[in-house]
Amino acid sequence: MTVAITPPETSPAAPAPVSDHVAQDAREFGAYARTGGWAFGLKVARSVRPGGQGADETPKVSAKEFAELAGCSPERVMRYYKAWDRAADDGMVPHFEALAPGQEVELPDADVWLGYYVSRNSATSERGTAITEAAEAEGIRPTKALEVAENPTALRAAILADPSTARAARQALLDRVREDPDLQSELARDVVRTDELKKAVAGESRAADRIGYVRQIAESGQIRTPAGQTVDAPADLRQEAERHLSLIDELDEGEDAGEWAAEAYDTMKSLVVDVVEADPGLRVQERRTKFYSSLQKATKVFEELTFDDAGEFYEDDMVQRLEDLQRAVAVCIESLRGARGTSASSYSPSLAVSIRIGTSCPAARRAAQTR
Q: Quick one: DSSP state of residue 48?
């Protein structure tokens, strides 16, 4: 009989001893992985004495002495110092006075450190402070914003090469220009000096005016006739205005609305004319309004004529034109008398000579042509 012999189990080999230096590096790496800059901030906070304390009051040293021992600049030490100070004011960590050299405390998460530490010297300037505050308001790291501000050439390159960066820059400029009159003036000058921008602004302005015309009809329920009357819009016309607006409002942000605005505007203008022509009473009122409008303009133009120094610029053609105008006005007056049956006593010479030829009466034009 064969007897199987099981070999004895071998125990795992004992791990090789780890050097003290490796173990220390691992511990420090783990501490930094958990706490990030807080680990170094604590070293500064518990070893650098706060302002106002003398060397004889505490075993801590000055930021300059600490920097010499660390082999770095005092400015770098103070950036950690100020970050810890801001965090202490927010209750995230103990104040300097509560810490002693070598003391350990529970530290916040590593990600929180980025909200307090600014690694760039420019952050201490007035300009840097403003950039830092704006970055914090946007929810981004101040160091990123400061880096961009310190390298305008890089910003320009990004704007020129990347459409999304250009759009972000455009939006930022629009947000700033509302509160910066000087920038408003500079941008305005840039626009009027650049033909492409002038054309683009004119096109956008025209499109905005047309959209505003359609929107006014849709929202107010009223239309303005060609003669300037304001009347209630029929329900179907108002619905048509709302339909066009909905199409325009559904356009993507970067999509050109000019063509859509032109179509909506032309459609509504045509429909307004149809409304006027379809209503006899409104049509008569429209013609009356146009007549009075032309009459008022002609009166104003004639009243602006002065003859105090007529002798200096007199020409026979001037008198001839006025005589033609007088005959044309007389024909218009006779036409109105015949249509309305007005009496001769209603004739007003001052009114007659102030009607512009061709704006109100075809008979007047014919009279002027027969001179």
A: B
Stated pTM of the model: 0.46
Cα separation, 96 vs 109, in Å, equals: 19
Cross-strand partners of 61: 48
Beta strand 230-232 pairing with 222-224: antiparallel
What is the pLDDT averaged over residues 67-86? 87
- The rounded distance, in Å, linking the Cα atoms of 266 and 210 is 9
Please state whether 42 falls in left (phi above 0), alpha (psi between -120 and 50) or beta.
alpha
* Nearest alpha carbon to residue 81 among 34, 115, 121, 49: 49
Crossing angle for the helix pair 362-369 and 316-340, to the nearest 10 degrees: 140
DSSP state of 251: S
Q: Which helix (H) or strand (E) holds 210?
A: helix 195-220
Q: How confident is the model at residue 368 (pLDDT cuts 50, 70, 90)?
A: very low
What would the mean pLDDT of 204-226 be, rounded to a whole number?
A: 91
- Which tokens is 89 given? 């004011």
Cβ atoms of 97 and 52 within 8 Å: the answer is: no
CB 247 within 8 A of CB 263: no
Task: Report yes or no: 272 and 225 within 8 Å, Cβ to Cβ.
Answer: yes
Could you give the CA distance from residue 169 to residue 158 in angstroms, rounded to a whole number? 10
Helices and strands counted in the chain (H then E): 18, 2
Closest CA to 365 of 338, 323, 328: 328
Per DSSP, the three-state class of 295 is helix
